[in-house]
Design a protein that fits this description.
Keywords: Hydrolase. This is Alpha/beta fold hydrolase. Pfam families: Hydrolase_4. It comes from Parvibium lacunae. By secondary structure, the protein is α/β, with parallel strands linked by helices. The chain has a single domain, classed as 3-Layer(aba) Sandwich (Rossmann fold), CATH 3.40.50. The protein is built from 10 helices and 7 strands. A 7-stranded mixed sheet has the order 1-3-2-4-5-6-7, sandwiched between helices. Strand 6, helix 9 and strand 7 form a beta-alpha-beta unit. Helix 5 crosses helix 6. The N terminus is likely disordered.
């Protein structure tokens, strides 16, 4: 396995020291209909490092969703301002549950999908590892999967199928996502459904190949390009066309 840039999660420590607000802020983009929440899908968007809750709309992904009339009528979007300090200070899981998912449940949503970009993809996996039945699908755009040391440990074991969970593993460890992912090798109908979207030249691409045995080919979308919104917007449009009607 090729190496990732060492310390991806630590690269922003100097710039990300402000205690994040409580509750977590988010931008809401309601569906273009008056359907009750129980009849709609809630798409929760988690941004990457350097992005914000506004990025989903600013980069054209909201417009692409709204360009699909059937989806525009039934999909609410909450783009969450879950910035790096939430991960740095181990606040992601409790704040995601208390401020976002509990609120969604109170509002009556029955179908929730998580869309995570880069570090947000890691967040989506982390949340699903802790609460595996709360989201119908995870849409992962070039997700961060862990540090060089963590990924080298999987490679040294011979791959994810042979990796063994440490006895002391807990949710504060970035490897917490791996037993959850490992379960996809053994479950006939895993929950939630995983979708993986990334550029073939993405710096995370070698690590993302670790997920290929877990995810059917039809649920993996790639194209030329790197770790950027140009690639992700094009992949999102393809995903909406091929899978949107069935999962949103």
């Amino acid at each position: 396995m090729k190496r990732l840039c060492c310390g991806f999660l630590m690269c922003c420590l100097a710039a990300c020291t402000t205690l994040p607000p409580t509750p977590v802020p988010y931008l809401a983009y309601p569906a273009q209909s008056a359907l009750p929440e129980a009849e709609k899908t809630l798409l929760i968007v988690l941004p990457g490092v350097g992005d914000s809750a506004a990025s989903f709309a600013q980069q054209g992904l909201l417009a692409a969703l709204r360009a699909q009339p059937a989806l525009a009528a039934r999909v609410d979007v909450w783009s969450v301002d879950m910035s790096f300090p939430y991960y740095q200070q181990r606040l992601f899981l409790p704040r995601m549950q208390a401020d976002i998912m509990a609120h969604a449940q109170q509002r009556g949503y029955r179908q929730v999908c998580l869309l995570g970009v880069s570090l947000g993809g890691f967040g989506a996996l982390l949340y699903a590892a802790k609460h595996p039945t709360q989201a119908r699908c995870l849409i992962l755009f070039a997700p961060y999967l862990g540090s060089e040391a963590s990924l080298d440990g999987i490679a040294a074991a011979g791959g994810l199928a042979y990796w063994r969970r440490p006895a002391d593993l807990n949710e504060r460890d970035e490897r917490y996502i791996w037993p959850f992912l490992q379960g996809y090798l053994h479950r006939a109908t895993p929950t939630p459904t995983l979708f993986l979207l990334y550029g073939e030249g993405d710096r995370f691409a070698p690590a993302l190949e670790t997920l290929h045995p877990l995810i059917p080919a039809a649920q993996r979308l790639t194209q030329p390009g790197g770790h950027n919104w140009v690639v992700w917007r094009a992949l999102w449009i393809r995903w909406l066309t091929t899978h949107g009607a069935n999962f949103l």
